[in-house]
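Sorry, any thoughts here?
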Amino acid sequence: MRDLGTGIVYGDDLIQRSNLPTQWAMTADIVRALGRMVPAPVEHLYSDTSVMALGRALGRLRYLGDVVVEHCHPVAGTAPVDEGYERVNSREQYRTDRAAYGTWLSSSHGLAYDLTRIREVIT
């Protein structure tokens, strides 16, 4: 993080590895500039995807393969499928969050706007 100055880092979750930041840390200036930690206005799904898109667009995203934060998840057999999992991973939730993410990517008040706000505060 210190090397980035402003940016986002994520470790190896033992499922997605470098493909997706299922857990991340970001500098406080990003959070202050956006007023939130998850860039896209999603409820659950696409949070990590939007963090990756923002970090890549800023050129300030780093994968730390030597940092392991295991993602306990039914897909990996490390967590059960329960009512909460079913609710936040329902088809309806997928449709809702996919639409919100797509709008955030393409809207002039989405990713492009967020990048402008962050660039204004980068020292």
The first helix runs from residue 28 to 34. The helical segments are 28-34, 47-58, 83-88, 91-106, 111-121. The first strand starts at residue 8 and ends at 12.
